[in-house]
Amino acid sequence: MSQLAYAITADTDHAPQADWIALCQQQDLAPFSGVAARFGQYAIALFYLPGEAVELYGVSHIDPATGAPVMAHGLVGESGGEFYVAAPLHKQQYRLSDGQCLSDSALTLQVFNVQLLDGQVWILPPTE
Q: Which of 25, 83, 104, 127 is most buried per CB count within 10 Å?
């Protein structure tokens, strides 16, 4: 089953910093899986890894190899202490920490600054 999260109203009283915006609720996330979210023009894949040193990652939902919006449906894996997502169509593996493809250095996913705080997922809007 596909999940989709939409930006919620900003709650600046609980924001980690002034520029952060509440994206969705923590309960919208699927543990050890991806959820697609939309923030303005950006399609984002959120990966929630409860209990890990970094519990939440945000990368582009758009597969750079095909242009298809599928990355939230990829499988999460771990190799050498680094988490990655395997693209569902052609199985390229992208590190969640920096978006770099492990098999093709020309391919990268855009990475978004996200964090969990008080049951909400917060995003720092990209400056581009």
A: 83
The alpha carbon of 11 is separated from its chain's Cα centroid by a whole number of angstroms, namely 21
Rg of the chain over Cα atoms, rounded to whole angstroms, equals 14
Residues 12-17: contacts with CB under 8 Å, at least 24 apart? 14/117, 14/118, 14/120, 15/122, 16/115, 16/117, 16/122, 17/124
User: Residue 18 — pLDDT band, cuts 50, 70, 90?
Assistant: confident
Whether the pLDDT of residue 77 is over 90: the answer is yes
pLDDT at 6: 46
This prediction's pTM: 0.86
Which two three-digit tokens encode residue 50?
Answer: 């409860």
- Write out 89-114 in H/E/C secondary structure: CCCCEEECCCCEECCCCCCECCEEEE
Give me the DSSP letters along 60-73: ESB-TTT--B-GGG
- 127: phi then psi, degrees, rounded to nearest 5: -95, 0
